[in-house]
Task: structure prediction
Amino acid sequence: MPVRTPQQQRSRATQARLLEATVECLVERGWSGTTTTVVAARAGVSRGAQLHHYPTKASLVMAAVGHLAERRAEEIRTEAALLPAGTQRLDRLIDMLAAAFTGPLFVAALELWVAARTDAELRAALVPLEAKVGREMHRLTVDLLGADERTPGVREAVQATLDLLRGLGVANLLSDDSHRRTALLAAWKRQLATVLASGR
Amino acid sequence: MPVRTPQQQRSRATQARLLEATVECLVERGWSGTTTTVVAARAGVSRGAQLHHYPTKASLVMAAVGHLAERRAEEIRTEAALLPAGTQRLDRLIDMLAAAFTGPLFVAALELWVAARTDAELRAALVPLEAKVGREMHRLTVDLLGADERTPGVREAVQATLDLLRGLGVANLLSDDSHRRTALLAAWKRQLATVLASGR
Result:
């Protein structure tokens, strides 16, 4: 870890608080209810410090999505490292990913995607960031599943898993869909295991 | 068809214009940019007539979602009736459904789902409506695929197909995802065909 001055450490802590507060604010109030003023107040950061680190709402939310996607990926890696090998590993991994797609970061990201649809500036910034986040999520999933993408159908099955989880995340937005999701994913895990095993 | 007076016919035509304009407005401007004034102007309907038929924004968008979900289902049924029987029928049906999940009605509905997440009144109205629309879409898909839900795994496979398509619809929001979607769905169709055939 690089050596940081106390000032740099304070700056990073301030940034982290602002980014966490941004996601909380998007989850609670949505895109239209999220303002830099509200975020600064929630983070307990002065307006001046907020403007210094993230001068615009767009810069704040972009940084928040990037930061939290990284943190989420790290959490998934850490949790996955604790899973025992064996037949239940795939099931547990899918459950972990499903939790990520129904959690606060997914909800915050969805707020941004929908807002960016009708906001050209936000969209221009978000599209490359989301492409990167999407590629990294795909790579992470392939790694965790130990999937061999050279086997026909495996790449598509991993992609379908993530797209299915995105769809399930949206289905869970307005009401608790966990009962239906659990039954559906139980069936999908069996199919996915079959596809992944086909090249082994 | 019931006999209608000219006045009733005019009313229905006015309502249909308002509902179409509502969806167009949601697609172009999003939830926050959609107002009853803008919708009335776009539909070429007087403010008084708009207020008479749909006094609030919420009543307008609810009616629009219900009306257009029905129209969409009818279109899918009509198109599906023209498909030849045989091995390509399933593929064509999935393509039709994928088109529905990337089209204007899906985008308009997504605007509402996300807005309803942080708007208690809208949410209370939307949740039962969406549950009904979802059940009808599931039923329609089962019928069109000729799926036998008594066969183990079939019900979950049909649900997973619709959830996957919802996820693919979101993936297509900000940029054209059709290339990736086509490859992914080609693999999905083969898997779905296997599951559906397992009980036959």
